Amino acid sequence: xxxxxxFMIVGVGFITANCQQAGSTNEETSNEKEATGKIELIEVAxxxxxxxxxxxxxxxxxxxxxxxxxxxxxxxGNVNFFDSDFGRQMLEATDKEQPIYIFCRTGRRSANAAxxxxxxxxxxxxxxxxxxxxxxxxxx
Length: 140
Fold this sequence. Notes:
This protein is an alpha/beta fold and 140 residues long. The protein is built from 6 helices and 5 strands. The protein has helices at 2-34, 44-53, 65-69, 86-93, 108-119, 131-139, and strands at residues 38-42, 58-61, 77-78, 100-103, 124-128. It is globular and about 35 Å long. The N and C termini lie far apart (80 Å).
């Protein structure tokens, strides 16, 4: 009797673990299906060239307002990645069907922002390699 009870407990635990794992796999798969855009790194020189011929591109600094106020790329708007409504702000301020160029201080935050934008349906996302620090270094 004890063996049967032990077998049932182990069996239920195994089934529960498999169901939870399958649920997370299905969730990840559905998120991947929704996230159809592409993310590419762009070099400072490429962005400079692009801005020289088309200063009206969607360029967004995803740093905090203080960081933005301390210096940014001339035509960049600002949407703070750390804001709880970052996604909503980006959808309101930009056109997800058009290419978007983003940057932060070093590239870490903008990499996370790019992933978020991809899940929101942005098609072409360009992330400045090295961030504003790389841009500033190229200016000097």
